[in-house]
Amino acid sequence: MFSVNTKAFLLTFTLSFSLIGTAWAAEMSHEHSTSSSSPAPTASTAGNHSMDGMVDDHSMPSGMSHEPSSGSTHSMDGMMDDHPMPSGMSHEPSAGGTHSMDGMMDDHSMPSDMNHDDMMNHHDMNMPMAGTAHDASSATGDHDNDTTHGMMHGDASMPNSKGLYKVTMMNPPDWTMDEASIIQVSVQSADGQTLTPSALSVQFLSQESSGHEHGATSASTLVVDATPSGNGEYTIAITPNKEGNASLVFTVQGPKGTGAEVVPIHVRTSPPNKWFLSGFGLFVAGTLMSSTILRNKRQLKEV
Amino acid sequence: MNSTNKVNHDDNRQPYNLLKNRWIKGIFQSSLYPRVFHWITVTVFALIIYVTLFGSTNASKNFGTAATWVLWWPLIPLFFFLFGRFWCAICPFSWLSDTVQKYFGANRPVPQFLKKYGLWIIDAFFLLITWSDHIWGVIESPRGSAYLLLIIVALVIFAGAFWERRTFCRYICFIGGLSGNYSRAGILELRATPDICRNCTSKSCYNGSDKAPGCPMFEFPRTMEDNTKCNLCGYCIKNCPNDSIRVTPRVPTKELWFIRKPKMEEAFLAVVVMGIVLIQNLTMLSIWPRILEFTQNLLGTTNYPVVFTTIFLVAMAIPFFALWLTSAFSRVGTSDKTMRNLTLFGYAIIPLDLAAHMAHNLFHLLSEGKALWYTFLNVFTTVSTPASLAFVDNGTIYILQILLLLVGFIGSGYTAFRIARNHYKEQGKMFSTLLPHLIFLGLILIINIYAFSLPMAHRV
């Protein structure tokens, strides 16, 4: 049916594209699976679906930052409403410092030109069912503004801590999206005494908006249990699945009860898939070499 | 005197030729046309590839995503309507194909299977890309967009390296297939003047000359009857020694009234596009989760690819079978078979396709358009994005969408009327063949109006 040349072309084409397609599918299904993992059972129990966009969309007074600095210990329980903070307060602790900012939620004042209704309209979220890739990151621009309101406030986005514990990251890594990092943490009581909790787990929660006006949703990962590594320290492997501002929510079960401590982190963007780029490069190089050979043969014949 | 009057009368009957304007003719004959546009599109395309590959993975912060899916994709149907396939002449892929061909091209003839099944390949490609977007989230993922563009780049390089002229653009590109259909409803056409061409022996419009290459789309202007392939690159205008080529404004949809050789694959693409608009709307609506949940319960699985593929196939099949059913009613009492009727009237969907496509994307363009500016600034520096990226409020967008849909419906309805008149008037079946198709088009209109009235998701 086809000439030898056509068959050769088709074979080269099919093989090369299988390679590229496989790498692409692998890459995209990875992105997909991580993004669609947001409604993971534990995460949904915690009701984390209204987290996103809080960092970007609510301004803080000048000089304030969500950026964490390395080696610091944070406890920022109750900040989920993320109201602008009074001047002089910072989400960003100085290096090595230990901060406890529990209970800030009630004290935050809003700028005069912003009220709760405005904020809710900006985050007029339409939270669809769990498990759909598109909905996990879709923003809705409804015509009628009739989607669910008010998810920002009073929503149990993060477990509510009573300020029972402080979690310290011993070796804060340079977080990169989709790249596993192993961290070591130690747990102390609120008054600074080292504790040995009965269980420690952590969950990654992105605080980046995935869309505008209405679509702030969170990218979270499954809860990961920490492994004791001696000396009251724990080892945990975490793979952030979204770039930008995020939080690690440590759930501590210890002698003082169950508490959740939030450590803000910043995640760098991931590089493109090397396999895909390599496959693409090989395909292009192979194609151009093959065509050049054919071209030269034809030119020789013509001469 | 009589002779002069006759000549004037004949002149009046000639279609108006824009090339009679020396400025327009000068542009087409300039060696910079369409090259100068290529410089712009290739530069922007290179930037898009760079930022989608190495920039933010957050679509709302990535210029490549915003430029591709908030600006280019919404504007492209309008472009096809106004200027036919002119985009194809300035598309960065066509430049890439030409460049690869110039330095590495084997210039083999186009394989027969591409000639024979090219449109079906385009149909399949279009469906595959839409499906893979929903499975892997291509549009909302800058990396996904980059990989999609690079796969197309690879295809272009492959076609340009082995086959002659712009094989990719004519036989493989899914946008080319779409633009071919849409430009048929458009307001501009390029044609040769048969009386002048009759005595031409050079055929330089097809073969090329020292002024320009031959038609890159394998068209022979002398026999060209439709807009599906011509990309207004102007090579034939430069090459023609007899000034036979004319560029003429025309009544929108007129080309669809007189399809001499209707092709099932072209009609199928029109129906497929309606299915795609349907599924694109569906997945961005607030009722989508309920549809997913219903299908999950029906299938007994929560596997997203399985569930989505099922919905996708149904969404694609619904317009096709609805049209088939319509054609089955429409053909009653005529000498045509159902598939013949379907193929003929399939072309009537194109104006509504175009309108629905534009209406859907109008939402993205007008409600997220400012993203283009802020994401562009983000390439160079860090800027905070305002809470709203909209140019106008949603109510205004909805009104514009409804107006577009109504115009599309009128275009489709009138096209169906002309098709019925041309093919069935002599059999005395004009209205009986037309009525079912008008009802079908009306149903599509109502579904679209309802879909656009529901809350819709943003792209960035």
Automatic annotation (TrEMBL), chain A:
Domain of life: Bacteria
Chain intervals with Basic and acidic residues compositional bias: 105-120
Keyword terms, alphabetized: Membrane, Signal, Transmembrane, Transmembrane helix
Signal peptide: 1-25
Compositional bias annotation for Low complexity: 34-46
Stretches the record annotates as Disordered: 31-120, 130-149
Membrane-crossing residue ranges in chain numbering: 275-294
Protein name from the UniProt record: Uncharacterized protein
Species, as recorded: Heliobacterium mobile
